[in-house]
Sequence to fold (120 residues):
Amino acid sequence: MKKELLYGVGGLIIGSVIAVAVTWAITNNQSTSSQMHNMDATNGKTGDDFDKAYLDTMISHLEMSVDIAKQAGTSAKHDQIKIAAAQLIETQSRQIDAMKAWQMDWGYIINGMNHRQMHH
Fold:
């Protein structure tokens, strides 16, 4: 029993590392202009302006990770990746929901549009 548990935990760790690595690799293959926009989104901002830009950027990144994890859940060969992807979806979906609630609570959502949508 201990041996199976050890293999299971090891598999979860390896799967999580792989899921993070895949997410990082795909995220870092964005176009240079998109990367610069995301990096500049919070640059030089403070207070509400920083918070709005931070939440917009983080929600976007987390949603991208969830989308990739959903693909892993249906397309990955190894169960460890599928398990890690399911955990990522659960965790990051909660983070997205919390951040969207903060946007609503703090008045950063106006007429169903967030800060980034209003300025593009």
